[in-house]
Amino acid sequence: MSEQTPPTGDPGGEYTEEEIRAAYEAEIKRLRVEDVIVQTLVSLVNLGGRRAGFVPGAEDERDLEQVRLAVEGVRALLPLVEDQLGPEAGTVRQALSQLQMMYAKASGQGDPGAGAGGETPPPPGAAEPPEPPEPEGSKPDEPGPAQRSGRLWIPGQ
């Protein structure tokens, strides 16, 4: 019967500073930027859902500005790793859509009665109706058809 011991060989279990540093360096060598971005995406979606007040027990943590920032962060970072995610990119896009719907519901955009009763008011401009669609004939730097239609909600716009 053999037990694993810490790198020091000391069964008491204290690691030396050098051993901790070596383990950290090995982890950094293995880690890729894409891994950090994907983890950040997951963290933003999870934290955004919590700040929307839709996690049981977190209703008192509602902060719509934090939700908006989470949505904006996911929207900015997702294109950087979509190719690496492959089919999993659809899962992240679905989570982003759900987070956007949570924001809309919490800010009163999705439910005419929401937002009453002393809850945090929506950020400036968040509850305003979308602008009317622009004429067809898109250019590369202009919004796509979903954004122009006014059906796609985008925080801060």
> N-to-C terminal Cα separation, in Å?
64 Å
Task: List the uncertain runs.
Answer: 1-6, 111-138
Structural category:
mainly alpha
Strand content: under 5%
Major beta sheet summary? none
State mean pLDDT (0 to 100 scale). 75
Proportion in helices:
40-55%
Count the strands?
0
Overview of the structural elements:
- By secondary structure, the chain is mostly helical.
- The protein has a domain at 36-106.
- Helices cover 51% and strands 0% of the residues.
- It contains five helices and no strands.
- The protein has helices spanning 17-30, 33-51, 64-85, 88-107, 145-149.
- Helix 2 (33-51) runs antiparallel to helix 3 (64-85), helix 2 packs parallel to helix 4 and helix 3 (64-85) runs antiparallel to helix 4.
- The chain is flat.
- The protein starts with 16 loop residues before the first helix and ends in an 8-residue tail after the last helix.
